[in-house]
Hints:
The structure holds 2 protein chains of 2 kinds.
Chain A: H1 2-5, H2 14-17, E1 27-28, H3 39-52, H4 62-81, E2 90-93, H5 96-111, E3 117-121, H6 130-139, E4 142-146, H7 159-162, E5 167-173, H8 185-194, E6 198-202, H9 214-217, E7 221-225, E8 236-240, H10 242-247, E9 258-261, E10 266-268, H11 282-298, H12 300-319, E11 324-327, E12 336-341, H13 346-354, E13 358-359, E14 361-363, H14 368-374, E15 379-383, H15 390-406
Parallel strand pairs in A: 1-13, 3-4, 3-5, 5-6, 6-7
Antiparallel strand pairs in A: 2-8, 7-8, 9-10, 11-12, 12-15, 14-15
Chain B: H1 2-7, H2 10-17, E1 30-36, E2 41-50, E3 53-62, H3 65-76, H4 83-96, H5 102-105, H6 108-111, H7 123-141
Helix pairs in contact in B: 2-3, 3-7, 4-7
Amino acid sequence: MITTKLPDIRTDFPLLCQTSGDLAPIAYLDNAATTQKPQVVIDAMHHFYLHNNANVHRGVYGLAVAATQAYEAVRDKVCRFLNAADRREIVFTKGTTESINLVAQSLGDEVLKPGDEVLITAMEHHSNLIPWQMLCKRIGARLRVIPMDDRGALKLENLSDLLNDRTRILAMVHISNSLGTINPVKKIIQKAREKGILVLVDGAQSVAHLPVDVQDLDCDFFVCSGHKLFGPTGVGVLYGKKSWLERMQPYQYGGEMIKTVSFERSEFADLPHKFEAGTPNIAGVVGLGAAIDYIETIGRPAICYYLANLAEYALHQLREIDGLTIVGNAPSRSCIFSFTMEGIHPHDVATILDQQGVAVRAGHHCTEPVMDFFGIPGTIRASFALYNIKDEVDRLVAGLREAQHIFS
Amino acid sequence: MSELSNLYQQTILRHNKSPYHYGRPETSDVVLEAYNPLCGDKYKIYLDVVEDRIDKAYFFGYGCAISKASTSVLVQRLEGKKLSAILELCQHFLESLVRENADIAEDEELAAFSAARQFPGRLKCASLSWDSLIEYLEISEE
């Protein structure tokens, strides 16, 4: 029942219903880059600017109070959505990248000393690699990498060596944006915890697809973006355990994040405002709240079930194409598919697909080390979300065959 | 599909499949790099320059059909030509990617890339190696 019900929600997404002339609506298969927005999200932001717009945490007038309430209500919502223990553990940022940079910069000096180690995985997005690389460089620490096998699954046999007495921080991706691998983060976190190692989970790709419970995962930090969650761009979340957030230095300084200020010294605000300097993306946060409501109305277990079925169908159809090689064949995988086509560059494939109304991504997907590992400059990536349907898989396959025909 | 077959027409597909002087010579006077960090396309262009003329030209690297074919037709047009004439050709070619250029229209193979005008996302593929060569020629002129 679930599988037949979900496609009806396509009409909730105006962009997916747009047509031009005789052309079919776009088959949008670049959801790992960003998702489309349902009307309720667009309306929520529109409504905020029309009726509730004021700055937050400042004014005593009614409008400012309403804006603050709308903004802070979303913090409660995110807290429930991720099952955090305390609303003060939810910090609004502009996205996953900023959330990671915040942790790397504010926590790094606190816990890292020369000779210490930071551990990441072989499949990190550049945003969960470079902040740690730069931090290690600055401190004189060592960046180490959990390797993967040629299926794109992490090799965990030597994990206990990598999680050693020197390891202070483990930062790992939940679902790989370029391979689709779902990493066994809970199991790895348990191992890290035994040694008192801090863990950050990059949930940019997972939060829209899997139920996430940060207390159950027992990670110290969980980061994600609103725009991959059917919300607006420019808003993201940092979940951090209170004990750590309290110890950390502010990431940026300015208005909103202070208690008292004089020319001699300043005292910073309590959590979470200590990390939200300046006027935040208020309408964006409101939009994120509407996106979470939308997802919860459908239910993440239903989304998860639907996408697993769609992924199975897509995988089967893609494997039928001769000359197509799927990059990333981990046993546990999501609905992100990377592949190469024999004799055809990914950008040529993407252009040919585009002309048939199929939007995919081509390139290294901000994971150059992953591409180096597989010895390829890039892949074609089709990534699905809850509004995609089997017909779009078929359009993708037909487009790929057309590319083969043109290049034959 | 008409726009598309226009971009992936025979000239481009042919040069992609059998590029001109595709290889790495053991020695060369000048090695240029044409690299697009956004997509990873990367070519090395090897030039032998005798006085103010290009004597030999080769290229090697990896990229899409458009960038490979465009580098191939470029390299094919360099040998024996004066540097100043090449600079002029490059400028005409780049203009043809934006608007009609009479000089390029006469050269069927170069004109094939004008189709990229309909594909703004792919213009850089067509201009990649030409941009690098212009940069070199302009520096040489100074």
